[in-house]
Each structure stands twice: as C-alpha cells, then as structure tokens.
Design a protein that fits this description.
389 residues, alpha+beta, D-amino Acid Aminotransferase, Chain A, domain 1, Dna Ligase, domain 1, Rossmann fold, six-stranded antiparallel sheet, four-stranded antiparallel sheet, elongated, succinate-CoA ligase (ADP-forming) activity, Succ_CoA_ligase-like_bsu
Length: 389
C-alpha cells in the first residue's frame, strides 16, 4: 500500500526522523491558512499523488507570497498531473502539502528496502540526490552503495557511520546521520514497510540533515497489524478495478493490452501473458484467481475483466490442482449471463474435474472457443481478436 508524502513524513516524524514542517491542504483557502501557520517567508506547494516525477511535471512550486500560495493551489487542485510514473493519462490532484522552504546546500539519496536476494533490510545511499536513481545506476553505478543489516544483530551505529562516510558527511553531520538511519530502520521494522525512499535527503546551509521528500510503501499482507496505517489509504489513487479485485482477494493488475486474462497461479499467469505477446498481442491485465477460488470470486474476476473497455478478447487458462475446473466453468457461465459477452472468449481447462467443467461450458449455450493447451489457447484468442478487428 502506498501513502502520500505528507502522510509518510508524519509517520517518520513519530520515529524522530527530521522532516520539514508542513500542513496538508484540500482547498486554496486551506493552503493559504497552512502557509500562514508555517510563517514563511518561503513555502513549497506540493501536489500529492502516488507517483514520482512531480517536480518535473510542475507539481512542486517554491513561492514567496501568500498570493502565490493561493495561485499555485488553485492551479494544482483538480488538475491532472502527468509524470513518467503516471502513464499518459496522469493522476488528478486532490490534495496539496504546503511546506516550509529549505535552504539546500547538498542533495543526497537514501532508501531502505527489503532485499529479497539476501533476506535482509538494505540501505541504498548515493551522493547523487534529487535525480532519478535509475539514471544514476545506469550511468554512474559506482556512486551507489548498499549497506545490509544483519537481522540477527540488528541495527548498530557503525552502519549509520558507514553510510555517513559514503555520503561525504563530516563532523556533527555524521552523528545526525547515525540517528537518522536508526530512526528509519526502526520505522521500517515497526511499520512493516517494504520500501522507504528519501530523495532528496538534504544538507541545509546550516549543516543539518533533513528529509525533503519521502516515499513509503507498506506490505499489504501486514496491514492487519497496523490499523493506523490502513486508515491512511487513499482509494482515489487506486485503479477502481484493482480496488474491486482486492475486495474478492483477487490478484489483479491493470495493463494496457487488448486480451483479458483469467488464470490460476502467478507463474501460469505470467506464462500466459508471455505467450500472448509471443503471438502478437498484449495482455490487458494480470489476474490470478488463486488456488481456492469460489464461483463467486470467478464471477467477480470475469466482471472486472469485461469492465475494461480496452479488452477485445478474453483468455481463461486454468490448470486445476486445488482449483476445480467445474467451479471455474460455473463462474464463467454465471458472469457471462449477468454481464453479457461481446468479445471472443477462449477457455482452456485442464486438471481436476476437467470433464465436468467442459461439459458445463458445452451445455451453457455460450459462444465459447475451447482450447486443448496453452499454445492452442493463445493462438486462438489472438486470431479471434485480429479477425474481429
């Protein structure tokens, strides 16, 4: 689960991490009031969306008067911000964060994440803050350093000192860095964060460290332990189809293609998407109904797929182990009868109760194209989509 910058900074503040003072705002009047509360004389008006690249897209503006605060708030609220992470459709700005201006001497990069390869929490640090870290990794990888924390030993001050030296910090800044890293590590562990990114981490002209931006992702599977975190969720930032899928415990990710996919098992879903691309089309989604899906969940999955206007064909690919093919067939038939079928539908069933599943589809009277295996299914759905076009 993602949260907004102002929410992330509030969470980090609970752990003693230094962040600039700021106030969220939802209207131009609230933005002006926030600026008056902060005092100025310089403020930063920031659009709050779940995407990076806001500054380059005009979503972060430094202003020096209350009139300019109001003008920028009026411009941003309700506008659509298009960044390299939003896609061409962009995201609507519904919230702002008005923050104290900071006198910046240096910009650094710092992040903390779960390194799956080592099963450890890792800190990634670079002197090249304020830039896309992917660009730094591609052009000057030697400027990125990684520091792992041994889970048996936990955090130790020497880790913070090593990071400080890697960032070129000196004197009191080293002590500040040790305290900062300790706070970040504690926050990541306590709140089950999967990613924490500070870009930039700045050194002010007064020599202090300050987290000028903050991006936080939480592990969805741990949210039951953190009701306070779950309450920070902004559903307006989520794809409506993905939000509905969560309600039925479906693993769904919207994509930009034309062929909707309903598959059981993440590995088989990935293979299905790959073979669709192999035969010349693009998948419209990743959808794993899971190993123990009910007819109700299958029906919901089918409805989510058909609600996508870009879908020109549907491929149901089920290999029944725990999942029963007759349950899938029942769900597909129920869904088609409820929402109709206006695009080609190819179904490949194999495994538990496959004969019963095929019989249900045959006797349904639906215009279903049967397939013998995955290769056959992919060829048929791609051919059907191209023919319909």
């Amino acid at each position: 689960m993602n949260i907004h910058e102002y929410q992330a900074k509030a969470v980090l503040g609970e752990f003693g991490v230094p962040v600039p003072k700021g106030v969220p705002a939802f209207t131009p009047d609230e933005a002006v009031k926030a600026a008056e509360t902060l005092g100025g004389p310089v403020w930063v008006v920031k659009a709050q969306i779940h995407a990076g690249g806001r500054g380059k897209a005009g979503g972060v503006k430094v202003v020096k008067s209350l009139d300019d605060v109001r003008a920028e708030a009026t411009r941003l609220l309700g506008s659509t911000l298009v960044t390299h992470q939003t896609g061409p459709h962009g995201k609507q700005v519904n919230r702002l964060y008005v923050e104290d201006g900071s006198a910046i001497a240096r910009e650094l990069y710092l992040s903390c994440l779960v390194d799956r390869a080592t099963s450890r929490i890792a800190f990634i640090a670079s002197t090249e803050g304020g830039m896309d870290i992917e660009e730094v990794a591609a052009t000057t990888p030697e400027k990125i350093q990684t520091f792992h924390v041994d889970p048996a030993a936990g955090f130790s001050p020497y880790i913070g000192r090593n990071i400080a030296y890697a960032l070129g910090l000196e004197g009191d800044q080293v002590k500040q860095c040790v305290k900062l890293i300790a706070g970040l590590y504690k926050a990541v562990e306590a709140k089950d964060m999967s990613l924490l990114e500070i870009n930039p981490l700045i050194v002010t002209e007064a020599g202090d460290l300050l987290c000028l931006d903050a991006k936080v992702n939480f592990d969805d599977n741990a949210l039951f332990r953190h009701k306070d975190v779950a309450e920070l969720r902004d559903e307006t930032e989520e794809d409506p189809k993905e939000r509905e899928a969560k309600e039925y415990d479906l693993n769904y990710v919207a994509l930009d293609g034309t062929i909707g996919c309903m598959v059981n098992g993440a590995g088989l879903a990935m293979a299905t998407m790959d073979i669709i691309k192999l035969y010349g089309e693009e998948p419209a989604n990743f959808l794993d109904v899971g190993g123990g899906a009910t007819a109700e969940r299958v029906t919901a999955a089918f409805k989510i797929i058909t609600a996508d206007p870009n879908v020109q064909g549907i491929l149901v690919n089920i290999f029944g182990g725990i999942m029963r093919c007759d349950v899938i067939a029942d769900g597909v038939v129920t869904a088609v009868k409820e929402v109709g079928l206006e695009v080609p539908l190819v179904v490949r069933l194999e495994g538990t109760n496959v004969a019963e599943g095929k019989k249900i589809l045959e006797e349904s009277g639906l215009n279903v194209i049967p397939a013998d295996d995955l290769d056959d299914a992919a060829k048929k759905v791609v051919a059907a989509v191209k023919e319909a076009a």
